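Hi all, long-time lurker, first post. I run a small reading group and we've been trying to get comfortable going from sequence to structure in the token notation. Rather than ask abstract questions, I figured I'd post a concrete chain and ask someone more experienced to write out its structure so we can walk through it together at our next meeting. Sequence below, copied exactly:
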Amino acid sequence: MTDRLKRHYTVALTGASGSIYGIRLIQALLQSDVRISFLLTEAGRQVLRHEMGLEWATDMDTRQAEVRAYFAADAIECLAVEEIGATIASGSAAADGMVIVPCSMGTAGRIAAGLSGNLLERAADVALKERRPLILVARETPLNSIHLENLLRLSRAGAIILPAMPAFYHMPANLTDLVDFVVGKIMDQMQIPHDLFPAWAPGQA
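-- Answer (accepted) --
Happy to help. Here is the structure in token form:
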């Protein structure tokens, strides 16, 4: 399948804890022959370094090479958050959907307010206005009233609020099983088949 015909999603990592969810999602999407536009905020870059030991460059040419080498794939394009003129900022060239994983409450609040101060916020706004899936993997606890009001506003605007809440009914044996459950739930919303966790069946435990 040519890149032009592949499903195309924007995946963004922000400064909330939970970088592993975003990295694992990218791996699973690339294995499913999905083309990815990748956004990483500066706060997200710092959290990624702290939580996973991945220190990707700020220079975009260098980061592109590092990211493609890490995932061993060419179907991922790194975009600078400041690159407001990128194609995903236009409704006429919108991606098939967007996932923000993890999604900080600051990012959620700015999107809920309709701000488009950078490419991430603009791409999210485009997804909402073009009625494309916008999945926010919220990662904060506890949630205050402002967080809840912003998430409700986003849900009413058409976003899918998918908190990073792993389940235990599938009897996870390790951290990977817990992460894969959340990533599988994201892919369910994207309608992309996966085998990251077994479907629930009564009596399976």
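A couple of things your group might point at:
The mean pLDDT is 95.
The longest strand covers residues 97-103.
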